[in-house]
Amino acid sequence: MGKLMDDWLNNMGDWNISRRRYYGLPLPFYPCDCGELTVIGSRTELAEKATAGFDQLEELRRPWIDRVTIRCDHCGREDLRRIEEVGDVWLDAGIVPFSTLGWRNEEWVPGGNATGAARGLTKADLPDHEYWEKWFPADWVSEMREQVRLWFYSQLFMSVALEGVAPFRSVLGYEKMLAEDGREMHGSWGNLISAEDAFENMGADVMRWMYCGHPPDRNLLFGYEGAHEVRRRLLTLWNSARFLIDYGNIEGFHPTYADLHGGLEAGDLTTTDRWLLARAGQAIEETANGYERLRTDEVITAFEGYIDDLSNWYIRRSRRRFYEYDDAAFRTLWVGVVTALRVISPVMPFLTEHLWSNLVAGPCDDAPQSVHLAGWPEMPGEVDDQLLAEMAAVRQVVEAGRRARMEANIKLRQPLRRIIVRGAGLVSPHASQIREELRVKEVSFDEDTAVEVTVKPNFPVAGPRLGPKIKEVAAALAAGDYEDLEDGGVTAAGETLGPEEVERSERVVLEGWVVAHDGGVSVALDPTLDDELILEGRALELIRALNDQRKQEDLALTDRIVLRLPADHSDLVDEYRDWIAGEVLATSIEVDETLDSPVLVLDAQSG
Predict the structure, then answer these.
(1) How far apart are the first and last CA of the chain?
(2) Taking Cα atoms as reference points, which of 102, 65, 94 lies closest to residue 152?
(3) Does a structural domain hold residue 171?
(4) Tally of domains in the chain
(5) Residues 458 and 586 in one domain
(6) Which of 50, 144, 548, 551 is deepest in the core (most CB within 10 A)?
(7) What pLDDT was estimated at residue 328?
(8) Coil, strand or helix: which one is 29?
(9) Is this structure's pTM higher than 0.85?
């Protein structure tokens, strides 16, 4: 925006500020035949110079202002009339920082100076000059990019002319809002969405999210499809809060407001708890930085990354702890969810207020009644960069492992025997989490496994120096036509690249195994299935199907059942009876040879 304004100021021509219209800001220019031009600066000055018509002046608008004549101080003529033209509307807009905030106004005027037909239309006071000094210049103004030559310029012009300073400290400009088809919105084209329809069918929070989440240097394609995608993404926050509320009510969890101010004791927390609190602190820092930079799109990017970690890692990794009432898990999740509400509430005020009332204001007597009265959140704990890096590496390994499963066409519910991880040295303390997430019996960190080394240029570093030759160097490296140097660099295509100009990656190579890579991380899995693994996989599929059936039959989360299974599941019952019963809340399991599908019967005696 700064460069656009510089270009405009350096290349602008004269501004024709007058318009031949009836309604508008009357230009207070009174020319005289003697050559003198009188410019009236205030209503008081007009009253002093008026020779006729001032008594009927209901408003400083046409037609009343046109009936006022003034005296020429140069020649004494007493019938000077104002020119008929009115000012460009951007004169009105540009003078707002002065006309509405009491610039050079000696006294505070309750209700303002509205007269005539305008009287009573506004209740706004006209402040005094002391008030203007408090609020001028503005901290921030925002409008679309075209306003560089219109509103932004008119404000700047007026302010520099009157006070010698810019009227704003920072400016945010943005591009156009278009229809989802990429065209401008027009009723005749059938792509116009009225504000009322958008509020009714999208919701204010969804609309705010669409505006705030969009990078300001790109056109926004606005429509119902985009709104649907926003609602889908917001389900992650909603479902996380719903999970906490549902299981908190079942287990009798009562949050403590002091936990938001460092009240969690480190000795009670698991590594995963400490990680979530560190991620919450990181999210506070990242969103605060986005707000300070006036980049709400960066705020939303940081928020979505955090809420994904909270839902798809912390809750999933800790789910069993909530079933068995682990107080530290409930308290940690509560702090994590409430922190999410507080950092995103300026963008999404209504949903966050609803969730705050249920999660905080209701159960905590000493909490503010509104999230918008709670202030910016405190850090829930120290941001442990080492732990954050370790867990990010764990998730990288897990994602690579899932891709390997997809390539092998093996479902995640099918256990496997072994995986080998290479290039992820930070994750070894968390092998158990990787084992559980990827459902494997053994995780090995084998740096001696056969690997394939890939070398390519570091394009941002080497590109500017090598210019067009970078393509030839890249081709030579890809073909393996290079020599390694002792310092870590290489020679290729007649060029010498330093170690900082080269990127190396290693990929595991094992015959019969399936390998996936993520950057420098390789995960190789053995896809061989034996009878034991197949049986366990069938048990997991049965548990999933039974829990889906519980939902379809509208069973409550705590309802106990009597489970009857067809005979083809008898081997699963023989091997995994207690495990299956625990996962589906069955008080007993029976095998019935007459059944074709499972039958769930509510166990009334268990209630």
Answers:
(1) 66
(2) 94
(3) no
(4) 6
(5) no
(6) 50
(7) 94
(8) strand
(9) no
